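Try it yourself: sequence plus coenzyme A, in.
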Amino acid sequence: MLPALSPQNGGFSEEFAIVPERDRDVEAIDALMDASFGAARHNLTVYKLRDGFKPVRQLGFIAMDSQGHARASIRYWPVKVASSSLRYLLLGPLAVDPAIRGGGLGKALIARSLERAVDLKYDVCLVVGEPSYYGNFGFTNASALGFKLPGWVELRRFMARELQDGALSAALSRGLIGPA
Ligand SMILES: CC(C)(COP(=O)(O)OP(=O)(O)OC[C@H]1O[C@@H](n2cnc3c(N)ncnc32)[C@H](O)[C@@H]1OP(=O)(O)O)[C@@H](O)C(=O)NCCC(=O)NCCS
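Structure, out:
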């Protein structure tokens, strides 16, 4: 179902480990997000589902360098569809330090965290991101499936994938996404 996760060092001379986010990483993660998306990211529709709500603690992962610093991060927020009792996630933000992009850390963070989300029995994962990137992880267009976000989004970038077999087969499993 999910691509196998192989240990990565990104082809860099430095080694990185994919580990759960720690309390001490919060500042470094904020800096990574600012460098990647800027402070204006809070105006994006997805932040209506994040600001004021807590991310899923068990799904926060970082790529840690040999000095113990967070150099890439992925987080998820819990979301819901009013008509459904399924458990939904919103993937992101995901960001890799610009100095070490393109070495597989983004893919490794997605693979590790999605495996954990499956283990934690989440049913459906949503994301707003590049289809050519997230398509590699089984995401398909969410809008075409019948999902809606509470604001404007570039529809081609809004994607979904099921984490448990059959989770998306019922029509009631799709609809307007709200904070959980
Ligand atoms: C997007 C991002 C997380 C990818 O992480 P990464 O460690 O640099 O990339 P990976 O090594 O995992 O993957 C590299 C592959 O992704 C592709 N890729 C990288 N960024 C991409 C993008 N924005 N759109 C489409 N494909 C992209 C590369 O072309 C490469 O393809 P290949 O494997 O076929 O050669 C990272 O570049 C980043 O932090 N970007 C800025 C923030 C961002 O856009 N986050 C995602 C928002 S949803």
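One thing you can check immediately is this: The domain at 17-179 is CATH 3.40.630.30 (Aminopeptidase).
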